[in-house]
From TrEMBL:
<keyword id="KW-0813">Transport</keyword>
<dbReference type="InterPro" id="IPR006128">
    <property type="entry name" value="Lipoprotein_PsaA-like"/>
</dbReference>
<protein>
    <submittedName>
        <fullName>Zinc transport system substrate-binding protein</fullName>
    </submittedName>
</protein>
<dbReference type="InterPro" id="IPR006127">
    <property type="entry name" value="ZnuA-like"/>
</dbReference>
<dbReference type="GO" id="GO:0046872">
    <property type="term" value="F:metal ion binding"/>
</dbReference>
<keyword id="KW-0732">Signal</keyword>
<feature type="signal peptide">
    <location>
        <begin position="1"/>
        <end position="26"/>
    </location>
</feature>
<dbReference type="GO" id="GO:0007155">
    <property type="term" value="P:cell adhesion"/>
</dbReference>
<dbReference type="InterPro" id="IPR050492">
    <property type="entry name" value="Bact_metal-bind_prot9"/>
</dbReference>
<comment type="similarity">
    <text>Belongs to the bacterial solute-binding protein 9 family.</text>
</comment>
<feature type="region of interest" description="Disordered">
    <location>
        <begin position="134"/>
        <end position="154"/>
    </location>
</feature>
<dbReference type="Pfam" id="PF01297">
    <property type="entry name" value="ZnuA"/>
</dbReference>
<dbReference type="GO" id="GO:0030001">
    <property type="term" value="P:metal ion transport"/>
</dbReference>
<dbReference type="InterPro" id="IPR006129">
    <property type="entry name" value="AdhesinB"/>
</dbReference>
Amino acid sequence: MKMIVMRSSLRAVTAGLAALAVLTLAGCGGDATGGSGGDGDKVDVVASFYPLQFIAEQVGGDAVNVTTLTAPGVEPHDLELTPKQVGTITEAKLVLFEKGLQPAVDEAVEQNAKDAGFDVAPAAKLEATGAHFEDHDHEEEGGAGGPAAVLPGSAGNEDVDPHFWLDPVRYAGVVQAVTDKLVEVDGAHADGYKERAKKLLGEVTKLDGEFKSGLATCKLKTFVTSHEAFAYLAKRYGLQMVGIAGFTPDAEPTPQRIKEVQDIVRAEQVTTIFYEELVSPKVAESIARDLKVKTAVLSPIEGLSDANSEQTYLTLMRENLQELRKANSCA
């Protein structure tokens, strides 16, 4: 199984420039997205993107300073690190990341924070779901349709799906793993970490129950999204996800893929084409317009935007549940 490395040449240049600046930035502290830096005895924690930031903040509480590498409005798959961000990683006591999702972060941790880096992928129990990355350098290899012709759940696709946080059960596993790591790194505040983790795990378990009951009676079982972020969620709750694009949100779908999606929408009587906040909705809107169906937002919760910056993982997941219930005629 594999997770593809994207934009390697640009990332290599960025990493080289960042490395030159690390020594200058070391000891300066600061929030990699512009906030305040270290605070006394608090543990400096870096989270590579929002779902991990939320865990760190909820479990860490006032015992940690949390810095996120992916600012609101930035698509996490596209993240390239600044020298300041590399410096922040270098100085952190703990760096939470998912190996393979953001290659620039993988490289920065490998080069500057091996001891502090904590890859959550094993705790998430990632697997190949049939969803896939598009390889921009070889998109013609699959013939006229390219690789995007593979449907979620189909055989022959070994890309590991990184979107664990959209499955509350997998997310709970990562919450526990991060909690255990915080206790290991900062045993003096272990009781607080465990207490706050218990509360968060209770909320995530409740969320799982809401999805189970809320999606149990859907008349329609298929939903269409702008990219293949929701395979774990679909599998957990008995639905079928169809992605217009693969794991890469801004990838351009081929004409063949668009036709496949249109055929599925007609055959399965899909009522809604879902798009997301951080990527252009033009393709989703075009398909919906051609088929005279609705569009709506289904958030992959990869990062926040200006429009939902006051929301949380839990509130956004509940909004997703309501949108799925509405689109799939769930009683």
